[in-house]
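To illustrate this point, what follows is a protein record of this kind.

___
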Amino acid sequence: MIRHAGVVVGLALLLAGCASHNRSGAYGSAEDINTFPANYKADIQAAMHVYLNDPTGIRDAAISEPVLKPASLAMPERYVACLRFNAKRTATVYAGMKEIAAVFLAGRFDQFRDSPKEEQDLCANATYTPFPELQTLSRY
């Protein structure tokens, strides 16, 4: 029994060491953290399945090219792409145009910013192009 306790304590210490590792080093340098998101459209499409209750039937979708911007006062620069779309509120009623910002970390989608103040700051002067791929999402 005591021998098993020693193994458990050893594993716990090993895991604690891994957990306390410097998380900022996980992505490497600032250049690695701010790698251009080459697959940003596909990443956004995948994230929209979680973000929207019903991702089907989106209308008037548009997207901006990712641009390196300060993501917030508390966060350093990140690549940000802005989206405009009209999603369903219910099965037959649309919610109206919405604008959100997609923030990327190390070349991959990290989070959406959709509070009015943040979105306005991040998406000011964004140049939009049609995003028809967003309009063809399925439920799954």
